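thread: overnight batch results

M.L. [08:02]
morning all. the overnight job finished for the chain we discussed friday. pasting input first so we're all looking at the same thing
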Amino acid sequence: MTGRLLVGLMSGTSCDGVDAVLASFSGTPGAADFSARVLAHAQRSYSASFRGRLLRLPGARAPELARLDRELAERFAEAVSDALQLAGVARDDVRAVACAGHTAVHLPPDEHDEGGTLVLGDGDRIAALCGLPVLSELRAADRAVGGMGAPLVPFADACLLRDPERPVATLNLGGIANLTWIPPEGAPLAFDTGPGNMLLDALVHSRSNGEQTHDSGGALGLAGEPDLAWLQRTLATDDFVSAAPPKSTGRERYGASFLRTHAAALDALSLRDACATLAAYTVECVVHALRTHTPAPPAQLVVSGGGALNDCLMHGLRARLPEVLVADSEAALGVPVFAREALAMALLADASLLELPGNVPGVTGARRAVRLGKLSPGPRSWR
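M.L. [08:03]
and the structure it wrote out:
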């Protein structure tokens, strides 16, 4: 097997499972000779009970955090084995595993407080279970030099997608929506735009008494009509949407507290209309970000994450951005929509192994570029 083989792991804010990507890299990340190829993509869904525990993380006590740190590591290791088996690749051919961990709490710094980020998924346990070196806690080094530790994917996005003729952009619609704008040359611009699927998922789960976890295919939203008055009013008062980058956010802002704040307005709507309204909110946050916080419209917007499978969101983006070619990552790049972030984690670990920095200071707010990740050698050291 040619190239440098690494496995990237991702467990996102939707808390629905772990994605593992086995990728092959050649050349130098960021250079003209660099190339990447996805060899396998494996998904392990979390059980309903385990997902419920992850969704309750903001209020978890220390014993539960300790248990989840261990249990997540076990699930990450199982996903690595799934990817290797799917590709028919031997462990000895794999250079390392990259795991950003599952974010329990993300508190961006502000003028009053340095904030903090806590991720779960013990790298040493993953290494012991996988029999492979593991690069974990990829956000920590950036936080140590004043950054937010997020978003981390822009370095990878620029390596994979840069077009020498025109700006392009990527949008990951996970629980939170994050955007990367990539110019023909120079550093990318990236930041969270606001909610992705998080509000929709929570609303559908609540209204269906737990029988549904999301608006499958966007069918509910497509059948409804958005509350335009609520949409306009809420966008005008959302200080995160109006804030200039660098910025990042999470469940602390766009989770249960947001839905409680707007419960009266949303409860007055049918489920279909409420889904249409929250989908429109996600779309308008993205549109505002592109039109306000990027130097020029991208020629193409490549969408990944679960939201790429929500036709209400995708139709909304295409309707509101007629000048932009909006396509999912499978169609545009041949990368499955749930694989992009795990592929990015593998690429970041590849850069660290090559002694290259993987953060983008202008994106995270860090004082300087740094190599990312903490090493758990496992049974063998770096090669």
